[in-house]
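### Sample
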Amino acid sequence: MKKVSVIGAGNGGLTAAYHLSKIGNSVCVYDSPMFDTQINAINEKGGIEALEELHECKMLFSGFEKITKATTDIKEAVEFSDVLVLICPSFAQEILFEKMLPHLKDDQIIILMPGNYGGLVLNKIKNDSARSDLKLTFVDAISIPWACRAVEPAKIAIMGLKEFLPMSVFPYSNLEYAKSKIDNILPLRLEFLDNPIVAGLENINFGGHPLLTTLNMGLLENFNGEFNYYRDCCSVATANAAAKMDEERLSVGAQFGFDLKTELEAMNALYNSNYKTVYEFNRASTTHVKINSSPASSKSRYITEDVAYLLVPCFELAKVAGLNIPIVESCIHIASAYNDENYFKSGRTLETMGLDNMNVEEIVKYLSC
């Protein structure tokens, strides 16, 4: 039995703790003392329940799983395992890592779900700290494996599971070590990408979330998000705009020598489908039609996370490569206006990743170390 610590007890963290336990791991789940509702509920009930049905739709992997440890003590969680799965909003990655840093030890692996270039950011924080000699491996997953929701304290619903999960390892020289440590911990096949930049650019939330949310904001706010997001917010025209944004993403990858999948190719592969267009996928995906909710405001993570931590890095990489990506740039401008915040500055920049003042060739070389 392998041990794994899950850092974060939101939708993804609870589902990770449940499913990782279900497949035979000993699991510790952590959340901050300021957000202890889920931890208290797990300790009270002895574990986590996954529903069989929600909104008259069949859910996956239903049942009840005991959790070895649920704690608000970060030291206890970090010391529980050499494999730490960090599942939280991107803005919280740095906050949680700084709490973890005094307790980390050599050769631990931190899996970020989603990565959103976070492994590079956390590596820079470590290098700038008094613990710069600490030997850590950062694994950036393109997303979480599940479509899931926490419906009550210590109770979840799992709508879908990806066929496989692409992820990168940094430093790249630790690839084989990382594979040996995380083999069979997760409930799906793993695909290893070249580096964290590829993992960030391959995040399938890149086009669908920020652009569709931005284009539909009036309806989403006025009707309190009471839609099936993927079915109702994707039209032929908005799908066409998303396709143009996807072309911009692909062009940035190409400038760095990265052969990226199109959004449609990635979604069909991850969900074992064969849709002909992104519009068709969003309207008919058997996983996504179960998600009968939408963002209700511009403060949704589809803006605050996906614009700031996916679009901004892409824009910065494009600048290094000398490319104009007007749809991505426009989406960042509009989201910034919505929330009265300059995401070009507050989002995830090359400086926070430790890649500022590098050209294309230097970035690629740094990532391959």
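The mean pLDDT is 95. This sample (Opine dehydrogenase Odh) is used throughout the tutorial notebook.
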